[in-house]
Write a structure and sequence with these properties.
Order of helices and strands: HEHHHEHHHHHHHEE
Radius of gyration: 24 Å
Largest sheet: 2 strands, antiparallel
Strand order of the largest sheet: 1-2
Number of helices: 11
Structural class: mainly alpha
Shape: elongated
Number of strands: 4
Strand content: under 5%
Oligomer: single chain
Length: 245
Amino acid sequence: MDISGLQRRALFALLLLNAGKTVSCEQLISELWPSGVPSCGGNALQAHMTRLRRDLERCFGAEEAALRLPGSRSGYSVHVDPGELDLEVFNTLRSGAREISESDPAEAADMLRRALALWRGPALYDVRDRTSCLYAAALQEEEHYALTLEELVELDLGQGKHEQLIGWLKALTERYPYREKFFEQLIVALGRTGRKVEAASLFRRMRSEMVEQFGVDPSPRLSRAVQRMLEDDLVVEGGFRSVEL
C-alpha cells in the first residue's frame, strides 16, 4: 500500500478509536505528521477526509457517508452504529462475562470465546507505527486480549476442563513467555491431572530462566500457588515422596 493510503487508514483508525467524538484538526495533524506540521497540513488533512468520504460513499451512498463522517471547523468525527465496531463488541462481551462469571461461568466463558473470535491478528497491525496514539492504543488492546485469554482459562479451570486446557496453555506460555499467569494456570492444570512432577519441572525451568535473564525470582503469588498445588505427596512404587521445588 502507498504511503498516502497508509496515512489515510491511520486517520480513519484515529477517528474510530474516538467514535462519536470530535477529534480536532490540530490533534489529527500532529499525529499524522509527528516530525512537524507541514505548511499544507490542513489541506492534506482535508484531502484525506475527502477520499475517506468517497470510500464510504461506495459502501453506504453519498447521504449516509456524509452522516457517517461529519466535519466541522473544529475537527472531524466518525459515527458507527451499535455493534458495528469490533472493539466495542469485544469490550461489551468482556464486561458482560465479568458480570456473570460467578453466577453462570459457562455462559461467561462462551461470551469470552465470542469476544476473542473477533480478533484477526495484531491490533492495528498495518498502522500502529504511524502515530504514537495508535501505537499506544494497539499495546493497550493487545493487553486486554491477553487478559481475556487469562480470564477464559480461569473460567475453564473452574469448570474442571484441566486436561483439555494443557495443550492450549503450553502454546500460550510459548507465545507469552513473560506472563506468569499462563504458567500458573498450566501448572494448576498439570497438577490436577496428576502430572505434578511435570508441573514442578516447569516451575523450576521458568524460575531458572527468570533468574538468568532478569535476575529476579517468580512472584510470591506464583510461588504460593505452585506450592499449594504441589504440597500433596505422590505415590511411587509402594511408597511416598514429596515433590520439591
